[in-house]
Every structure is written in C-alpha cells, then in structure tokens.
Amino acid sequence: MKNRVGVDIGGTFTDVALQHEGGIATAKVLTDYTRPEQAILDAIKIACDEAKVDLSDLTQVIHSTTLVTNALIQRRGAKLAFITTEGFRDVIEMRSENRFEQYDLNLSLPVPLVPRQDRLTLRERIGPEGEVLLALDPADVEQMVTRILEGGYEAVAIGLMHSYANDTHEVMIAEALRKAAPDLPISISSVISPQMRELPRFNTVIANAYVQPQVANYLGRLVNRLRDESVSAPVFMLHSGGGLMSVEDAAMQPVRLLESGPAGGAIYAADFARAHGLDKVLSFDMGGTTAKICLIEDGTPKTANTFEIARTYRFKKGSGMTVSTPVVEMVEIGAGGGSIASIDTMGRIQVGPQSAGSEPGPACYGRGGKAPTVTDANLMLGRLDPENFAGGAIPLYPDKSEQAVADGLSETTRLSPQDAAFGVTEMVDENMSNAARVHTVENGRDIEHFTMIGFGGGAPLHACRLCEKLQLSALLIPPGAGVGSAIGFLKAPFSYEASRGLFQRMSEFDADAVNAVLGELEEEARGFVSAGTDGQNTQTKLVAFMRYTGQGWEIPVILPHKTFNDADHDMILTAFEDAYRTLFGRVIEGLACEITNWSLTVSTRLPEVVPAERFTKGAAAESLRTREFYDAGLRKMVTAQEVAREALTPGRSFDGPAVIVERETTTIVTSAFRVIGQGDGCLLLRRKGNDA
C-alpha cells in the first residue's frame, strides 16, 4: 500500500515516516506534551508537503504512544476499584518480597496503583485445575455492584485466584457490572492475562483498567482530529509485541501498548538484518530520552511475555511492577540526547536517568534549559553542527552548552569544559556498552559475534564508540535512521499473541487438553488479526513455557504448530532440552520437567526482503569540508572530513575520521573505522584492517 504513515511519539521528538510512490518522506518535530495530537498533525503535514501528498490521500496511519507508560509512571489514571478473592487483596503490595537493592536500608518500593481501601474482595475460590472450591454467591455480587456504583469509580479491574483455569466467576461479576453500568470500563484478568502467577496477572489487569479511560479518550481525540483534517485513513496501533492492532482493540487492551515505540525500532533493524543476511544483530536505538538494546537472531527480534513498568529506581531491574503482556525484549537505560549530567556525592560525573525532554530540552536548544545534557556535550565536542541540527529546523546555541557544562560540571570537578563534556559522553557510552554486554550474557550469547545496527537520532553519534568498547567489527546505519522506529511501523505485520495457563507435568502430558486450549487461542488470535486484514496469508508461532520440576521460572520453547498426540512427548522434551542447553550450556539429567503456559501468535506474512548488494571496498566519496570533533578512542580533537550521506552511493567509501551528515541525524566515523555505502542505502562501518 502507498501513502501509509508511521507516527512515533517519543519523550523528546515526534517522528513521522510517510511511505509514498517516490519512497519515504520523514519529519521530526518536538513532542508537545499538552497536545500530542497537534505534534502528530504538524509532522504529518511536513512529510506530506515534502512528498507532495494530500492528507486526504493517506491510506493508513500507524501510531505508537508513550501515553500508557507515562500515565503509569506519573499516576495519572482512573479512580480504580480492584475486585479479587477474599484474602488476596494485598498480593500487589506484598509483591515477590525481592530486595532489588540488598544493602539499601531505605528501599523504596512501588506504591500499588489501587489503594488498599479500593481493593474489594468476594468470598469465592477456584482451584488450579479449574475446580470450584467455593461457589460465588449472586447476592454477594449484587452487593459488590452497589458498592462500586456508590464509590464513584471510573474503571474496575477484576482478578480472581486461578481464573486463568476457569473464568466463570470473573465473567459473572463483569456481566453484573455491565448490566448496572454499561459505560463503566471493566477489565478481567482471564481476558487480559490468563496465565499462572497471580502477582503479574493482577498487576496486568489493574494497569489495563487504570489507563483504559484515558487511552480511549486520547485515541478518540486523535481519530476525530485526523478526520477534521480530511484524514479518513484507518488508524492502527503498534503493540509492544511488534505487530499492528486496530485502534478499537487498543482502546480495550491498552496495556499492550507499553513499549510499542521501541518495538517499532526492533522491527526496523530486523528488516535490514534480513536484507544483509545477518543472523546475529545487536539493535541499538538511542533517542532523546533513552537508549534501547535488543537482540535480533535469524531476522527476528527476541520477545518476552513479562515486562516491568513504573520502576522506583529507574532502569533498575526488580524495582517496578511486573506485568505479563507480550513485548519485544530489550534493555533500556537512561542514555538519550536529553539525559542530564550531574555530579554525585563522590564527585563523579553521572548521566541520567533524568532527562530534559523537549520542554525545556537541552541547554543548547535555547528554550530555558540550564542543566548540561548529552546533546550539549556532543555539541561542544564538535559532533553536531549548530546550524544544521534536524535539517536546520532547530538552531543550537554552543555558548549555552558551554555555560551549562561549566556551571554544572566544571566548577565541581575542576575539569575544563571540554574534558567535562568528554566525561559525559564517555560515561554514557560506557553505560550503554555495559548494558549490551549484560543483555547478551543473560541470553547465553557472545557479543563479539554480533553486528550492530544503530538508529534513532542519537545512535549514529555514539555507535562507533560503542563498537570500539564492545570489540565489534561491523556496524550498519540504515537510511532514515533518525526516524527508524516510525519507519519500522510501516514494516510491521498485523499480529496478536494469545496466551493461556495450562499446567502439565510432561509425565502426565494430555494432548487432548493441549489441543483444546490451542484451538481456543488460535480462534482468539485470528479474531484480532482479521480486524485489520482479510485473515489470509498468515503464519502461526507456538511457544510452550517450560521448566524443570522444582524451578521457579520457565523458559520459552518454540514448538511446531500442529495437532498434538501423546507420542509427541519426546519431541517436546527434546525441544525443551535444546532451548535449555542454549541458555545455560547444559541440561539436568534425570529431572522431570513441566509446562506452565502456552502462547500462540498469529501474524500476517511479511513480504520477502530484497537482498542488499554488499560492498566492503570502493572508491572514495567527495567531502564537503573539514571540521573537528573529539575522537574518544584517541583522546583528542581530530580533523575530519564532512561527507553528505547522499555522496556515499553504493560502493563509495571514506576513511575515518569523518562526519556523515543528513537531515535527521549525524554519523560519527572514528579514526578506527571506514564507512562504505551499500546497495540499499545503508552505511556499513567496518574496522580498518577488517575488510573480509
């Protein structure tokens, strides 16, 4: 389809990518926190003007939003009631009793989204096999409905014990509430997260209900505003699992929109990984607020079924609220262009997690920001052109950067402003490289075998230095890298992941029970996918979550999508052992294993990618001028050639140090690397002396 537009709202910039007959037109504007839909329209109009496309000619709008994440972090959700089984209303406050900072005597835990007085209980109990141990009294339900109506609640979440195995009681409560209050938003855990473990299941249904009124209101405003501007195209949302869903489904299950923007970036990187025949890729997405790192193997981003939100120690694993929803798995740290640098109590330079965002933004924006940021440091080190930032749309003021660094860092550290600026960028690069190392080790991989793909407004500035630190020999900067996530939206399939808890020991494997559950999951998933497509040309992915008996957590095991029989026991066991050996290097002989949850994903098939013509050598491109930037590997300023990106046509190359300029971003090629244009418009940066 032509004239499709992808819109990504980030913490600093709102990015737009428009696919039209002539290629892809892009736009980048500052995010408007008070009126995000206005920034969307402004950016769409810029891209349409460039492509000479009328707004009325748009055929599809694909969007992601940080509204869900921000509402949960800032506690700007609905007045919410949570209905649960008697005796279990404190589960979300007791958490897992894990001390994520073992030696912090003043540990700050997340405050539950629902105050204790709004957690309501009913006498009922269903067992783990779905058996009714204590029937729900209809009279108790009627009393609960009255209490909800009198309480003035704006939304209701229902999460009962073991409802994933039997949803009868949850459905009974929901039906009674809908009959009494048809317009009251209601979320039930057996629909939102029908999986084992009550803590993440309760958290997920609560998070969904908490943001549902706000998200539904925002999406309604956005669609109406687009219609007012003659945009009649259907609107779809990118969900956190890396696929598209209708705006109506997104309004019902907004918890699936968590991390949807970063998921678009992973899809973008995966598309180029397939085109270049790369089976081990490290996706590096750095924007204005955060940096995200994701593993992509065999052209597919790694996914997970749990995610942490609203962390009290930002980016500290274990300090947040765990929700169970499909998500592209990535590590995220506070290392964006707007990340603020400061001095800690030991006199060291620290960067992030606080960000200047777009309001007021870095000091060099001249919008009132006073704190030194990563963008200020890069400007002082010559890596940014103050007259050509964002294609000249945003002028930068070097004197304001120098003043911010001098006041915020130099006075305390007694470093020169330039040395302090280098300290800021080096700290950011070290934080990101450490995160990449840990992420690959946790997934049982050796990072030196990976190729990096860098995108986002900030990644091309830092990617070369990260490759030096990680000992990576190759780096790709795709075309449109500055708005990579928005372009990724245009490459995403329609997809939906349905999951269900079904506990079975492999010694008691019941193929009929499994087939019955998988049939229900496929029907659910295809129902969602058909909302945006004709349901044809789809593919199905089946995952069983398995563990050894006695272990606390399971691992995902990919299985063939088929009708199972009892003879498949050995095949499933072998697949589990292969997956376990890949992660941990060994299996545990003689120990029984079990299945806890099943997950089935239906998605539309992506078109075959056109293999990119690869070049490792070539004639030198022409430079525009010379300029200086600070080469961190050499610890000094170097004279570099400035090269327009369009000059690096396929086979054209340039030795670092060099600065590759384009409208949305700038690529820094350090002295240790050489850049070569590729057949698909990518820039391939290779370590000198490694031309194989």
Portion in strands? 25-35%
The total strand number stands at 35
Fraction of helical residues: 25-40%
Largest sheet, described in full? 9 strands, mixed
Mean pLDDT: 89
Radius of gyration: 26 Å
Low-confidence stretches: none
Shape: globular
Secondary structure category? alpha+beta
Count of separate DSSP helical elements: 16
**First-last Cα distance:** 38 Å
Can you give a write-up of this model?
The chain has 692 residues and is α+β, with helices and mostly antiparallel strands. It has 16 helices and 35 strands. Strands 13, 14, 15, 20, 23, 24, 31, 34 and 35 form a nine-stranded mixed β-sheet that branches. A six-stranded mixed β-sheet has the order 3-2-1-4-11-12, with helices on both faces. The longest helix is centred in the N-terminal third of the chain and has 31 residues, at 198-228.
List keywords for this structure.
nine-stranded mixed beta sheet; 692 residues; 16 helices; globular; six-stranded mixed beta sheet; 31% helix; 35 strands; alpha+beta
What is this structure's SSE topology?
Elements: E1 4-9, E2 13-20, E3 23-30, H1 36-51, E4 60-64, H2 67-74, E5 80-85, H3 91-94, E6 119-122, E7 125-126, E8 132-134, H4 138-151, E9 155-159, H5 168-180, E10 186-188, H6 189-192, H7 198-228, E11 235-238, E12 244-246, H8 247-252, H9 260-275, E13 280-286, E14 291-297, E15 300-301, E16 303-304, E17 307-309, E18 321-323, E19 327-328, E20 331-333, E21 339-343, E22 349-355, H10 374-380, H11 398-413, H12 417-442, E23 451-455, H13 459-470, E24 474-477, H14 484-490, E25 495-505, H15 511-529, E26 538-548, E27 555-559, H16 569-584, E28 593-604, E29 625-631, E30 636-644, E31 653-655, E32 658-661, E33 666-669, E34 673-677, E35 683-687
Parallel strand pairs: 1-4, 4-11, 5-6, 5-9, 9-10, 13-23, 23-24, 30-32
Antiparallel strand pairs: 1-2, 2-3, 7-8, 11-12, 13-14, 14-15, 14-20, 16-19, 17-18, 21-22, 24-35, 25-28, 26-27, 26-28, 29-30, 31-34, 32-33, 34-35
